[in-house]
Sequence to fold (411 residues):
Amino acid sequence: GSMGSNNRMVNMRPAAREFVTEVLAANNNINDENLVSVSIIPYNGMVNSGALIGSAFAFDGIQTMSNCPRFLPGDFLSTAIDPTVPIRRISHWDYDRRNQDQAFTSPYCPTNQTSAILPWQHTEAPLHASINSLVTGGWTAIDVGVRWGVALLDPAAAAAVDTLIASGNVDGDFSDRPAPFRDGDPATLLDDETIKVLVMMTDGENTNQYDLRDAYRTGYSPIFLNTSNNRYSIWWADRGQFWVPTGSPRDAGGSWQTTPDGGWALYGMTAATFATSGPNAHNPATASGGQVLSWPSLWAAHTARYIAEQWLARPSAASGQTAFYNAVRNDSSYLFAGVTQADINLRAVCDAARNNGIIVFAIGFEAPSGGQEVMRYCASSDAHFYDVEGLEISEAFASIARTINQLRLIQ
Fold:
């Protein structure tokens, strides 16, 4: 969001476009060979991996609306992301309006292609268009941006490159990309012609990253719907019974029952399977006219407060047991990575990048001290770190482009 202040986005765009133009100049050669590929990874409090990355890397199937990854601390110890191993998605829910009694309005993770990753490009037009389309908003997760940045330089991503070549989204010249890392031993040098470069930029410092708690992000909720009469039954675990409203779930009327409205078979389960697995025993394939609402479907339609007030408030009041109602209403999402954890993650992945021979440039663009500190840490050397303000951002990007081209010529 802070990139919208002090003309930062206005100043950054032409600087980044010129950088792209300069480093892609190497592709204009007598051999008509695409030597340079460039990827752009926009980030705020998350990374919208987007449709291209979503088509080439595996994501979990809990929901398919969003492609924002949720990395664990251990994931930052490596530069690799295996395209065949499902990445955990950030939940699809309305974080900003979680305390409002209303329908879903805006997703925490974007579902469109705005500010999505653009991987392995060789021409100016799509890269310039990506830079021009960037919008401001949200918090800051430098660690997640860099995690994707190094992954697109790691040879483990080769299968993803092949997938995008096959779909026509990456040039066939990159069929041997990402190249192997150099191992530092001249006798066993794996690739002596490729330079891998990561350019980081932030105007901020790491802030907060949120997700739904595991208890609510997947599986079936305790809300049963008889689709033949639109009557609900709410399983209340503290009492071991179903609350069956007489009308709208928000109405005061209702009664406690030992079975859901319509009986077990309606929901594709038996009393025995329910006793073992609870609502997750629901089998839609064998249900005969009833369904158990899944947590992902609820979050995709309503805010936390709406879910709590619509279905949980009355059984909570009737039973006198309010813990579950309060948990869903007030504590269903949580901070899984704050400043300290994100900084630890960032330092770890920068260590992994440098250990694999990735050259890291870092730009602190009018960034506060916390952002400057981690950016300086990540840079390959003090000479690879830029502390700039205003129009100096153009000088920083131009300097980095010149250095990359000089390294390429020397190589």
Summary: The mean pLDDT is 95. DSSP finds 13 helices and twelve strands in the chain.
